[in-house]
Design goal:
Pfam families: MFS_1. GO terms for molecular function: transmembrane transporter activity. This is MFS transporter. Keywords: Membrane, Transmembrane, Transmembrane helix. Residues 8-406 form the Major facilitator superfamily (MFS) profile domain. The protein is mainly alpha-helical. It has two domains: 4-194, MFS general substrate transporter like domains (Growth Hormone, Chain: A, Up-down Bundle), CATH 1.20.1250; 228-411, Up-down Bundle (Growth Hormone, Chain: A), CATH 1.20.1250.20. 81% of the residues lie in helices and 0% in strands. The chain has 19 helices and no strands. The chain has helices at 4-21, 27-38, 42-70, 72-92, 96-113, 115-126, 131-141, 144-183, 186-194, 197-203, 228-259, 264-271, 274-287, 294-302, 304-315, 320-346, 351-380, 384-400, 405-411. The protein is globular and about 50 Å long. The chain starts with a helix and ends with a helix.
């Protein structure tokens, strides 16, 4: 029998797989057919998608604050309704303007229904013990592109891009909505939201809770001054850099590998290793790195891309697969760190709003990455790898500027 936590992870991870696959990963397959049918350039479709990411960034803090106040169950369930509406608008779009509106509606849904909201919901339910659950849902949802890209391509071939959008809209209502409603029971979520951290943790420890002997009075909290604004700035910079690099690589990796001397077929084959490498990195986090501080995990993960870039610059084409594996593994662990590191430093109180704030610069960087990186490739070619490696090292320096005591201090909350 699965425990309640395992059921939550399976349900929420499946819902996240659907959410990512039918929104964030949709343009890679449907942008071309969508543009041809509506008589516009694919650039306009991707521009509308970038607008959706901007909307997601602007509304993310508000969605996070609502999760802090009322729990994640309602916000995640509402996101399925918004996703379904946006996808239906795309499928029915008679002209480009309606298509743009459809993407902006999806941006509203992304502010409510992607990782940040799922992480906040888990922090509500499990407090500081949420790290394993966060890793679990990223393990499942890390396969979103692997699963949903072929499905979208098959649907487009069989019933057209409009039909594919309608099918994904129906999946949000028939699959995603029930999963989000059932995975976080209302009572458990509200109790976790209302209770202090110590109460939540005590409920998970045998021999505590109602009916147990009264515990000894907790020691008075030690007064201390926490540099929260500085830590928030450092984390915001780290997340913006890493999302910029990962999004740029997702958009341009095959082209970069070919420019490094890799054949087109080999470049696509090597790029396809990024997804499995991300999952492998998350398995490593789940099985080994979870024993250590999330700050250590994040520092190691930021080295993945700079080492990959150094190898490709030094060795060229023979290192193409190594580049994909190192970059993918680091990126996979960083996805988890974006949820676990703020939780470890600041604690679960106000976690949802804090995640929304931290995501704002990251979403803007993500929206700009494909265009900015394309300009850099035009100007300096494969020299762009030195730029991306430098950005990765800058993220590492920011993480090194966060003292290990920040995690200890957070545990005292």
């Amino acid at each position: 029998m699965l425990s309640q936590r395992h059921r939550v992870v399976l349900a929420l991870g499946s819902a996240q797989t659907l959410a990512w696959g039918s929104t964030f990963y949709l343009p890679a397959i449907l942008a071309g057919p969508m543009a041809r049918d509506l008589g516009v350039s694919t650039g306009l479709v991707f521009g509308a998608f970038s607008g959706a990411l901007v909307i997601s960034a602007l509304l993310g803090p508000r969605a996070g604050r609502r999760i802090d106040r009322f729990g994640g169950r309602g916000v995640l369930a509402a996101s399925n309704l918004v996703f379904a509406a946006g996808l239906a608008l795309l499928g029915a779009a008679p002209q480009p303007a309606v298509m743009v509106v459809g993407w902006l509606v999806l941006g509203i849904g992304m502010s409510m229904g992607l990782y940040e909201s799922a992480f906040a919901a888990l922090a509500q339910a499990y407090g500081r013990k949420a790290r394993g659950a966060i890793t679990g849902i990223t393990l499942l949802a890390g396969l979103a592109s692997t699963i949903c890209w072929p499905v979208s391509a098959w649907l487009e071939a069989e019933i057209g891009w409009r039909g594919a959008c309608f099918v994904w809209a129906a999946m949000q209502l028939v699959v995603g909505l029930p999963l989000n409603l059932l995975c976080l029971p209302r009572g458990a979520t509200e109790a976790a939201a209302a209770a202090p951290d110590a109460t939540v943790l005590a409920a998970a420890v045998p021999g505590t809770g109602p009916g147990a002997p009264a515990p000894a009075p907790a020691p008075a909290p030690v007064a201390r001054s926490e540099p929260h604004p500085r830590l928030m700035l450092l984390l915001g910079f780290v997340f913006a850099i890493t999302w910029f690099v990962s999004t740029a690589m997702a958009a341009h990796l095959p082209q970069l590998l070919q420019a490094s001397g890799v054949t087109p077929v080999a470049a696509i084959a090597a790029a396809a290793l990024v997804g499995p490498a991300q999952v492998a990195g998350r398995v490593l986090e789940f099985g080994v790195l979870q024993r250590f501080s999330p700050l250590l995990s994040a520092r190691l993960a930021t080295l993945g891309h700079p080492l990959a870039a150094l190898g490709l610059i030094s060795l060229g084409a023979p290192f193409a697969a190594g580049f994909a594996l190192l970059h993918g593994a680091g990126n996979g662990i960083l996805t988890i760190a974006k949820g676990t590191l703020p939780l470890a430093i600041f604690g679960p109180s106000g976690y949802g709003h804090r995640q929304g704030v931290l995501t704002v610069p990251a979403r803007f960087a993500q929206a700009a990455a494909p265009f900015v990186f394309a300009l850099l490739i035009e100007r300096i070619g494969t020299g762009v790898l030195a730029v991306s490696a430098g950005l990765g090292l800058a993220a590492l320096l920011c993480l090194l500027a966060i003292p290990a005591s920040a995690i200890t201090a957070g545990d005292e909350d």
